[in-house]
Amino acid sequence: MSIDTTLKEIKPGVFFVGSFDPDLRTFDIIMNTANGTSYNSYLVRGSEGDAIIDTVKEKTQDQFFAALEKVTDYDRIRYVVLNHLEPDHSGALPELLRRAPHAKVVVSAKAKAMVKALYNDDLPLETVKGGDKISLGDKTLEFLSTPFLHWPETMMTFMPEQKILFSCDVFGAHYCDERLFNDEVGDFSYAFKYYYDRIMRPYRSYIVSALDTLREVDFDFIAPSHGPMIRSDIAHFVDLYRLWSTPEKKDRMLINVFYVSSYGNTQKLAAQIWRGLSKYDKVLASMYDLEALDFERGIFLLEKSDAFLVGSPTINNDAVKPVWDFLAGMAYLESKGKKAGVFGSFGWSGEAIPMIQDRLKGLKIKMPLEEPFKIKLRPSKQELADALEYGKKFAQACLDGNG
Ligand code: FEO
User: Fold this and answer.
1) Which pTM does this prediction carry?
2) Which residues does ligand 1 sit against, CB inside 6 Å?
3) Which residue's CA lies nearest to atom 2 of ligand 1?
4) C-alpha atoms less than 13 angstroms from C-alpha of 315 in its C-beta half-sphere
5) Which atom of ligand 1 is nearest to the CA of 169?
6) Which pLDDT value is given to residue 351?
């Protein structure tokens, strides 16, 4: 794909100087990028100097510098604002600072220690907090505190004169299209949702806080750091973020039982635990065999669960692969406040159960019952009755707010 290097003024005095990476097929290990991506960078030309908002990934920096040299001289650059330090946005910084001798790097206070760790160098830093402003003469940059979207140090930058919100990764999409604007590019709805799911969803309570902050900001243009810029139907995109980030209102506690079974023994326990949970009117319980549960659906169900139980047999001193694959989905959702329990049937030593418990504890998930439910091989009548009781105890502990 050839790269279009014509000048791209997105609003008077504000230029797109980002780079395109159309052939990228995996981003950050965790995302497929069927449409490639862009690393969006912007040059704000002020009457008293210029500012750059975010840079680009190092391997694409030649595009960035070529674009930059069309719109400014390095001597004019006073500020490089890094809304986010991840290398896809800060990769070109070292070379940029070599070329722009008067540039100061503007970051959030939380970013300061991270800059040092990333660059092992003393950079000309200026830290800002939410509400701080920098004047470029006829243009102003205002900083908005929007942490954990999706690193602790992230922030947004607003330019009131042109009503542009430089939103960092928020409202981004891995979707490479040189036509740039949401009303000119192809249909990027899939990429927009997928980006949210993989990058933003684990931080959705922070998204809600950021959206509340943005209620007070009069913007009519969103310039994210990946993918199309949003200049029409903005409310639609903002509303989608709010919808996806707002927890569902439920009149019952949702408790799901996920299991894998080799010989039907762990499945029998799962069914009894599910029956125990279902004794409570205030609980809506369901059970799923992980062997047949699609990964994305598993994440969806985990996200909806107020509490869940995981059952596994032990094979070769380990829990089985569908369980580990399923638990890997926890990386893509906000686990705060969820509760869990573990159960299973085993033949010899039953290592799977403590291993799953350790994994869940490592994710800071609360265990309302201290003891897991485990039995050796085929459950007896008494053990089946005990499993039902365990389900009831688990439900009661969750309803009581234990754990
Ligand atoms: Fe696009 Fe979090 O970097």
Assistant:
1) 0.90
2) 84, 86, 88-89, 150, 169, 225-226
3) 86
4) 13
5) 1
6) 94
